[in-house]
Write a structure and sequence with these properties.
Blueprint: H1 2-46, E1 50-52, E2 55-58, H2 61-102, E3 123-134, E4 137-148, H3 163-169, E5 178-183
Antiparallel strand pairs: 1-2, 3-4, 3-5
Length: 185
């Protein structure tokens, strides 16, 4: 329960950061564009705004609008870079969690005298299998199924009926309470 609550707090923090990043970036770039626009307008009204150091000709409306268009395009690029930083930090966090999960040692270990799987015609069988997630939560009771190599077997049933539990018992993600799961006998 503590792990779930901690994960939920992290998700909420991440959502809040994403929710704040977009308006903050938008406000910053809008203020930057407005500041440049006001400064350029002030310089144009005083006659001090020129095309560049090589010419003293005042800026025309066309040159000013071309400059303003390039400024707005640069602001859009700045927004995209800010969003990229948010996505990158989320990806980095997800990668850390993934590698932490991969480093966890398995809790179920095969015995030293475990059989290796032979090549050939394979069959998976559940023989009178019982399984429970806890002492008072039986998921499967007396289930017997056999699936041979090349057969198509469908597990059909209502939600919570044990279909996923059956599939999780085959690779020993869980151990059975009763019965046996066998591969090739």
């Amino acid at each position: 329960a503590a792990v779930v609550e901690r994960r939920q707090r992290h998700l909420i923090k991440g959502s809040n950061a994403r929710a704040m990043a977009a308006p903050a970036t938008e406000t910053f770039t809008t203020l930057l564009v407005a500041l440049v626009f006001v400064y350029a307008g002030w310089r144009a009204t005083t006659g001090a705004l020129t095309v560049g150091p090589l010419t003293l000709a005042p800026i025309t409306a066309g040159v000013f609008f071309a400059f303003l268009t390039s400024l707005l395009m640069a602001a859009q690029s700045l927004r995209q870079v800010a969003n990229l930083q948010t996505v990158f930090s989320e990806g980095l966090t997800a990668a850390r969690r993934l590698f932490a999960a991969l480093d966890v040692a398995p809790s179920i270990v095969d015995p030293a005298d475990a059989n290796t799987l032979p090549d050939g015609d394979s069959a998976i069988a559940l023989d009178h299998v019982g399984f429970a997630y806890g002492p008072d939560a039986p998921a499967l009771t007396d289930v017997s199924i056999e699936a041979r190599k090349g057969e198509t077997v469908a597990l059909v049933g209502p939600s919570g009926g044990g279909k996923s539990s059956i599939l999780n018992l085959i690779p020993r993600f869980y151990d059975v309470s009763r019965g046996a799961v066998t591969i090739d006998g």
